User: Fold this.
Amino acid sequence: MKKLFILAAIFAAASASSLAALDTAKIDEITGLKGKLNEREGVYKVTLPRDDVKVVVDGWTMPPFMGLGTWAAFTESKVGAMVMGDTVLFEDEVNPVMSVALDNGLSVTALHNHFFFDHPKVFFMHIEGEGSVDKLASAVRKMYDKIKEIRAANPQPNDSFGAKALPEKSTISAEPLNAIFGMSGEVSNGMVKFTIGRPAKMHGVNIDKDMGVNTWAAFAGSDDNAVVDGDFAITEDELQPALKALRVAKINIVAIHSHMTHENPRILFFHYWGRGTAKELAQAVKGALLVTGLSGVTTPAGN
Assistant:
């Protein structure tokens, strides 16, 4: 019994030390939210229910309690603190808030949906970061303030990016894009597509481009009014630089997730959508390729 008491005292002291390092009062002050403490885990968590926009899922108005809660959880780490969180976002909030997160030292680790038949469409963006409590809490606050700013300007989420309509018939010139990517794109009905594979293993079997481990970019519209959409296949270390490169170029990120299990190395995928001139869009994608080491590949296109 005495040993149990001593162990309990040690655990309580460790928890108190962890919480002191976190400075929970400062987290409340900076985020503007009142957090909740989990003493057993040494975690301090702030939450923000998305009750500012009515969300209907499968014909039912969903209360925030049922899965529309934004949160950020803080715990002690070797460099001060770690934050992890999940942010509930509408389509017109995703990329502005992602840019705020990336610009303020946070990593964006996933972007996906949780529901079908939801109106307006809801996305969930996961974040993480390490550093001082001040830095992390300030980054979280800036994300939440950006959401409020967007909704204050337009209470109901937008249902498009707001770009001008694309021409019905695509007439993309392939040669300027071939020059940018250093490879020949696949051409179909005025559209151009570039595909770059990368080798990996899954269950000990070699997999590459045609097994789905590929980065691609497809262009449609006209040279002066184009759209690019595609997918990046990247390692964990490449994810944040590639996201930053595309967001700086105003390319929208629309999903971040995995496609496989038991692959080596671990491969993440993110999908994107951008509007502009074909050359500008190609240069933006090329910039992200440069930071992932996927540039200069001259294998034939197509997937």
